[in-house]
Design goal:
The complex is a heterotrimer of chains A (about 300), B (about 325) and C (about 325). By secondary structure, chain A is mainly alpha-helical. Chain A contains 11 helices and no strands. The longest helix of chain A has about 40 residues. Chain A starts with a helix and ends in a 7-residue tail after the last helix. Chain C has about 325 residues and is an alpha/beta fold. Helices cover about 30% and strands about 25% of the residues of chain C. In chain C, the strands form 2 sheets. Chain C has an 8-stranded mixed beta sheet, with helices on both faces. In chain C, strand 4 and strand 5 form a beta hairpin. Chain C starts with a strand and ends in a 10-residue tail after the last strand. The chains are: A mainly alpha (about 300), B mainly alpha (about 325), C alpha/beta (about 325). The interface between A and B is large, with 45 and 51 residues.
C-alpha cells in the first residue's frame, strides 16, 4: 500500500514535469500559430507603432501640437511640410495626431488594465460560488440596463469633464462586461472533469479556483480584453468628441474631430475625418490581434 | 410554459428598474453644488438658502429624498426644467419618440442589410465576395458613430447635396412622411453601421455553422432542395443567436443615437441631454437618462421573450 | 440481381497539409434484398463511402476522383446535384448515427416527416399525415399523435432512430444506407433497431448497406461483410464464411476484440476466452505507406508486406482477401 502511494506520487511529479514542458511547448506553439495569421501580425504592428509613437511623441512629431499658424489654417492634405494638412487653427494635424494618441491610448489602456484584475477576481468568485454569484450578477444587471454611452455621459455630468472623468467612466462602464465574460467562462469550466478530479485529490476551493480554473479562464478574458481595447478607444473618442474629455487646446483624437465640424462647409473635411480614420484603423488592429490570440491560445476554437 | 417565462422575466425586471431609478437618483444626488443656492442666486443669505433647502427637502436623509422622488416619478412628475421652467415629462416625451424613431430606423437598416449581407457571404464562403465583405465589416464594426455621422453628412449633404444635414422635418413642408424619411436616412445609417457590421459577421458564421449540422445532412439525403433547406431549416436555427445579438445591439443603437443626434441636430433625447448637461439643467438630464434606461430595459424584455418563444424546449 | 456495383472508388480531400486519400480503391456490390456490412475503425473511410453513394461528400474539399458506382443502369459518379435529388430519398435513402442531431430541433417530428413525405410524394397535408402514421406503424411506433406533435428532444434515442428510419422509408427506397445507426444507442435499444431493420429487409425487400465498427452486429444481421481499413477493403465475402474463416490478420484481430465474435480457443479451464487488442493506431491518411497499410500493426507481417499493397486473392464462395500472409483456416 505504501509502495503504491510512493509510486503514484512519483508518477504525479513526473507528469507535473511533463505538464510544465508541455506548457512551454504550448507557449512556443501559440506564438507560431499567431505569427502565421497575417492579419494578427499586421494588427500587432499597427498597435505597436501607435504605442511607440505615443511614447516617443516629442521625438517623432514634426511640430508642436498646440501652436497654430493662423495664416496656414485649413490647408489640405499634401501641403508641403504638413503631410496631413493643418486644422482650423493652423496646427499641424500629424503632430496633433501623434500627441493625441497619447491621450486616446492612455484613456483606454489604463482603465481596462485596472479592470482586468478586478473583473477577473469578481468573475471567478461569482462564477464559482453560485449563490454569491447570483447576487453579484444581479447588481451588475443594473449597470447593464444602461446603454454604455448613456452611463458614461451621466457619470461625467456628475464629476465634470477631463481625462480622469473619461477613465473613471470607462472603468465603471466596462467592468460589468468584463466580469460577465469571466463569469460565464468560470461557470463553464467549473463543471468540467478536471475540477472533479482536483476535488477528489483534496484541493481546497481557492486552490481549485486559482490553480485550475483561472488558467483556462484567462484565455477568454485576454482575448476579450484585447478586442475591448479597440472598442474602448472608439468609446473614449466619442466622449471626448462631445466635450466630456480633455479640454482644448490639448486634444485626443476624438476632440480633434470636434474642431473640424465647424469648418466642414468650408471645404476642409480632412480635419474632422482623418482622426476618425485613425481611430478606426487602430481599433480594427486591436480586433485582429484579438482574433489572432484566440486562435493561438485556444486550439479548440480555431475556426475558419 | 412561455407565459410563465414572461411572468418570471417581468418580475425579474422590477428590481432592475428599482436599481436603475436608484442609480439615476444617486447620480443627481451626488452632483456637487447646492441647487437651492443656485435657485436663489449667489447673493442670497445662508439662512435663506437653508430655509429653501428645508422647504424643498434637500436636508432630509437620502432614503426619504429618494422615496419622495420615486413617488413623483411614478406619478409622471419628473420635475421642472431649471432653464426652461416647464415640466420636464411633457417636454421630453416627444423627444423620446424622436430618438426611438431614429433608433428604429437604424434597427431596420442593420437587421435587413446585415442579415442579407451575412447570408450572401455565407453562401459564397471563401470567395472574393465573402472575403471583401467580411473585411469591410470588420472595419465597419469599429467606426465611431460620430465620425460616421460627420463623414456621411459631409459626403451626401455638403458635397453632393443629396440629403439634408439637420433636423427631422423640412421646415417649409412641415410634418410630411417623405420629409421625415429624407432626414432620417443619413442619421439612421450612421447609427446603424456598426451594428450592421456585427450582425453581418454573426449571420455569416452562424449560417456556416448551422449548414454543417447533422440534421441538414438528413434533409439533403432525403432530396430536399438546397433553397428549402436554407430558407426553412437553416434560417430558423440561426434566429436565436441572431436575435440575441440584435438585443445586444439595441443598447449600442440607443447609445450611438446620442452622438448622431448631436451631429445631425436631430431633436431627440440625446441632443437634449447633451444641451442640458451644458446648461446644467439637472432635472432634464436626470429625466433623459431615466427615460432611455427604462426604454432599454423594456426593449430587452421584449427581445428576451421573443427568443424564449423560439425555444422548442420551452413549449409543451 | 445486382443493385449497386461499386468499382475502384477513390475519394480524396484537399487540406492545407496535403491530400487525404480517404477512400482508396473500394470495390463491392450489393444485390437486391441483400444486407451488407461495411466494417472498419474510425477513419477507415466507411462513412465517406456511404456518403459518396448519394453524392453527399462534403464539398469543396472532398471529391470523387476515380471509380464508378453503377446503380439502376447508370453511374452515380457522373450525376449532377439535380439528378441526385431524384434519387435521394426515393431510390436510395440514408440514416445517420446520432438521431438527436439528425433532426431539426426547432420543428416537430410531424412537421419534418410531412416535409419529406409531401415533398417526395406530393400529397396533401391530410393524406400526408395518414402516410406518416402508416410509416410510424411500420417502424413499430403506435403512439402516433404524441410522436407527431413532439419535438425531437422530447423523444428517446430509440424512438428518434425509428422516426429517422420511417422518414427514410417513406418512398420505399431500394437501398438504405445506415451509417452506424445503433452506435449512439443503448444495448437493448440496439437490438430493437437491428431487428426492425431485419424486418424491413424481409417485408419490403429493401437492401441495406450497414456501416459499422462493431463486428458483433454484423453476425446477426448481415448477409455479406466487407472489412475496410485506411481507405481500402481488406477482406470481403459472405458473413458465415468470414466469421468462421477470417483470412486477413486485421479481420481476425477485429473479431477477437469482441466477445461475440472471438474465435480464439478457450485458454483456461472455465471455457472463457481472452479478448485481444490490436496494438497501434490507424495510419495517417496524408502519408500512406507504400506497402500494406496494416503493416505496422500486423502480427503476421513479413518484409514483402511493406513493398507493395497486396492484390486481391479470390478464395472459394466469392471470399476475397488482400494479404500476403493469410491466416490458416481454423477448426
Amino acid at each position: 500500500m505504501e509502495r503504491d502511494i510512493i509510486v503514484v506520487s512519483r508518477e504525479l511529479s513526473i507528469s507535473k514535469h511533463r505538464v510544465n514542458r508541455i506548457k512551454s511547448n504550448t507557449f512556443r506553439q501559440s506564438i507560431r500559430v499567431f505569427s502565421k495569421d497575417r492579419l494578427a501580425v499586421i494588427g500587432a504592428v499597427i498597435v505597436l507603432v501607435s504605442i511607440l509613437s505615443a511614447v516617443f511623441a516629442p521625438f517623432i512629431a514634426p511640430y508642436a501640437p498646440n501652436i497654430g499658424d493662423g495664416s496656414k489654417r485649413l490647408l489640405p492634405i499634401g501641403t508641403p511640410g504638413h503631410i496631413l494638412g493643418l486644422d482650423e487653427q493652423g496646427r499641424d494635424i500629424l503632430s496633433r495626431l501623434i500627441y493625441g494618441g497619447r491621450l486616446s491610448l492612455l484613456s483606454a489602456i489604463i482603465p481596462i488594465t485596472f479592470m482586468f484584475a478586478i473583473s477577473l477576481a469578481l468573475g471567478l468568485i461569482a462564477g464559482y460560488f453560485t449563490r454569491l454569484g447570483e447576487v453579484i450578477m444581479r447588481i451588475l444587471d443594473v449597470l447593464f440596463a444602461f446603454p454604455t454611452a448613456l452611463l458614461a455621459i451621466a457619470i461625467s455630468a456628475i464629476i465634470g469633464s477631463g481625462l480622469t472623468t473619461i477613465m473613471l467612466s470607462i472603468s465603471i462602464v466596462m467592468l460589468p462586461y468584463m466580469t460577465r465574460v469571466v463569469y460565464t467562462s468560470t461557470m463553464n469550466e467549473k463543471n468540467k472533469e478536471y475540477v472533479e478530479a482536483a476535488k477528489a485529490l483534496g484541493a481546497t476551493k481557492f486552490e481549485i479556483l486559482f490553480k485550475e480554473i483561472l488558467p483556462n479562464v484567462l484565455t477568454d478574458i485576454i482575448v476579450y480584453t484585447t478586442t475591448l481595447m479597440g472598442t474602448t478607444i472608439v468609446f473614449a473618442s466619442g466622449l471626448s468628441f462631445i466635450g466630456l474629455g480633455i479640454q482644448p487646446p490639448d486634444a485626443d483624437w476624438g476632440r480633434m474631430v470636434t474642431g473640424g465640424i465647424s469648418v466642414l462647409t468650408q471645404g476642409a473635411p480632412h480635419i474632422a475625418t482623418i482622426p476618425g480614420l485613425v481611430i478606426l484603423i487602430v481599433a480594427t488592429a486591436f480586433n485582429w490581434v484579438g482574433d489572432g490570440l484566440q486562435s493561438a491560445l485556444d486550439p479548440y476554437k480555431r475556426t475558419q | 410554459m412561455i407565459v410563465s417565462y414572461v411572468i418570471k422575466r417581468i418580475f425579474y425586471m422590477i428590481p432592475i428598474l428599482f436599481g436603475v431609478s436608484l442609480l439615476v437618483f444617486s447620480m443627481i444626488y451626488l452632483i456637487p453644488g447646492d441647487p437651492a443656492r443656485m435657485m436663489l442666486g449667489q447673493s442670497a443669505s445662508p439662512e435663506a438658502v437653508q430655509q429653501l433647502r428645508d422647504k424643498l427637502g434637500f436636508n432630509d436623509p437620502f432614503i426619504i429624498q429618494y422615496g419622495a422622488w420615486l413617488l413623483d416619478v411614478l406619478h409622471g412628475d419628473l420635475g421642472t426644467s431649471i432653464t426652461m421652467r416647464i415640466p420636464v415629462t411633457a417636454f421630453l416625451i416627444p423627444k423620446l419618440l424622436n430618438t426611438l424613431i431614429l433608433a428604429a430606423g437604424g434597427l431596420i437598416i442593420c437587421v435587413i442589410i446585415g442579415i442579407g449581407v451575412g447570408i450572401a457571404a455565407a453562401l459564397r464562403k471563401y470567395t472574393w465576395f465573402d472575403r471583401i465583405i467580411m473585411f469591410m465589416a470588420q472595419f465597419g464594426a469599429n467606426a465611431p458613430a460620430f465620425w460616421l455621422a460627420i463623414t456621411l453628412m459631409w459626403l451626401f449633404s455638403i458635397k453632393l447635396g443629396w440629403l439634408p444635414s439637420s433636423g427631422m422635418y423640412d421646415v417649409r413642408t412641415g410634418d410630411t412622411f417623405t420629409g421625415l424619411l429624407e432626414h432620417l436616412i443619413l442619421p439612421a445609417f450612421a447609427t446603424a453601421t456598426v451594428s450592421l457590421a456585427v450582425i453581418a459577421r454573426l449571420t455569416r458564421s452562424s449560417l456556416i455553422d448551422v449548414l454543417n449540422a447533422e440534421f441538414i445532412k438528413t434533409f439533403r439525403a432525403n432530396g430536399i432542395s438546397e433553397s428549402k433547406i436554407i430558407s426553412k431549416h437553416a434560417f430558423r436555427n440561426i434566429l436565436p443567436p441572431l436575435i440575441n445579438m440584435i438585443g445586444l445591439q439595441i443598447g449600442y443603437l440607443l447609445g450611438g443615437a446620442l452622438f448622431v443626434e448631436v451631429v445631425f441636430n436631430w431633436p431627440g433625447i440625446g441632443s437634449q441631454i447633451y444641451a442640458s448637461i451644458t446648461s446644467q439643467d439637472l432635472p432634464m438630464v436626470q429625466a433623459g437618462v431615466l427615460f432611455i434606461a427604462i426604454s432599454f430595459v423594456v426593449v430587452n424584455l421584449i427581445n428576451d421573450v421573443f427568443i424564449a418563444s423560439l425555444n422548442p424546449r420551452l413549449k409543451n | 440481381m445486382t443493385l449497386l456495383d461499386i468499382s475502384n472508388l477513390q475519394v480524396h480531400f484537399t487540406s492545407p497539409n496535403g491530400t487525404v486519400q480517404a477512400v482508396n480503391g473500394v470495390d463491392f456490390s450489393i444485390n437486391h434484398g441483400e444486407i451488407m456490412a461495411l466494417v472498419g475503425e474510425s477513419g477507415s473511410g466507411k462513412s465517406i463511402t456511404g456518403l459518396s453513394i448519394l453524392g453527399l461528400v462534403p464539398k469543396p474539399n472532398g471529391k470523387i476522383v476515380n471509380g464508378s458506382m453503377m446503380f439502376n443502369g447508370s453511374n452515380l459518379v457522373d450525376k449532377t446535384e439535380k439528378e441526385f435529388r431524384e434519387i435521394r430519398g426515393k431510390e436510395i435513402a440514408m440514416i445517420f448515427q446520432n438521431p438527436l442531431t439528425a433532426m431539426d430541433p426547432s420543428f416537430t417530428v410531424g412537421n419534418q416527416m410531412l416535409e419529406i413525405i409531401k415533398y417526395r410524394q406530393g400529397l396533401s397535408k391530410k393524406n400526408g399525415l395518414l402516410e406518416a402514421k402508416k410509416l410510424l406503424d411500420l417502424v413499430g411506433i403506435h403512439d402516433h399523435d404524441r410522436v407527431i406533435n413532439s419535438y425531437p428532444h422530447a423523444l428517446s434515442g430509440g424512438m428518434r432512430q425509428r422516426v429517422m428510419i420511417a422518414m427514410a422509408l417513406s418512398c420505399k427506397p431500394k437501398l438504405l444506407i445506415a451509417d452506424e445507426p445503433t452506435t449512439a444507442l443503448d444495448a437493448t435499444i440496439q437490438m430493437q433497431i437491428l431487428s426492425l431493420l431485419k424486418r424491413i429487409n424481409l417485408e419490403l425487400g429493401t437492401s441495406i448497406l450497414f456501416i459499422t465498427h462493431d463486428f458483433g452486429v454484423v453476425a446477426n444481421l448481415c448477409d455479406k461483410v466487407a472489412v475496410m481499413y485506411a481507405g481500402r477493403i481488406l477482406e470481403y465475402g459472405e458473413t458465415q464464411e468470414i466469421l468462421t474463416k477470417p483470412k486477413h490478420p486485421y479481420t481476425k484481430g477485429l473479431m477477437n476484440a469482441m466477445p461475440e465474435t472471438s474465435i480464439e480457443q478457450p485458454r483456461d479451464g472455465n471455457g472463457k476466452k481472452r479478448l485481444e487488442q490490436i496494438d497501434g493506431s490507424p495510419p495517417d491518411l496524408l502519408n500512406l505507406p507504400d506497402g500494406c497499410s496494416f503493416f505496422d500493426r500486423c502480427n503476421r507481417a513479413t518484409d514483402k508486406c511493406c513493398t507493395a499493397f497486396p492484390d486481391i486473392t479470390t478464395k472459394t464462395n466469392g471470399h476475397l482477401v488482400r494479404c500476403f500472409n493469410e491466416e490458416e483456416v481454423y477448426v
